Amino acid sequence: MRSAAQPARNRPDDRYFRLVARFATLLLVGCALLAAASTASAARAHRRAWATIDECRIAHKRATVGVLAWMPAGPATAAPHRFARIQLQYRDAHRHWRAWPEAETGYLALGAGKVPAFYGYSFVLARTTNVTSIRAHVVFAWRHGRRLVTRRSTLSSARRPSGRYGTPHGFSAASCRI
After folding, report:
1. CA 130 to CA 65: how far, in whole Å?
2. Which of 10, 18, 19, 102 is the 20 to 30 A CA-CA neighbour of 50?
């Protein structure tokens, strides 16, 4: 017989609480792994984002520069919202790249989803005599609500698959000479 000081073991309610505790622990570990996988997947995806100059036209006193940006989808579990900020840079007389203040989009919402996003934007610029070369600087950002998942900054590059885009058709360059 048991004495009154010894606790009873393997009562049905003890097994239930142990089972609930194990389930809660597994659930927490699963959520932590899912969050880590989501962040890692977005971090891998951001390495593949790119931008290219797909239009470079010069008219009488204006230049039109088009930028095509491609952003991969986020993780399959919870696709984050995607944003891109496009800014043109010009090469000054000392051959340094400078930001062109009038040629910036601010952050543009590209939506959330599990498919890659293409985004094209054209800048119409007044032609100046001291600007000779232009390139694009694009910042890509993946967000869950207000939380930044990851961000990547890239410069325009050549030989990108512009497909039906580009003027002339299929044009893709790292910089534009005006």
Report:
1. 17
2. 102
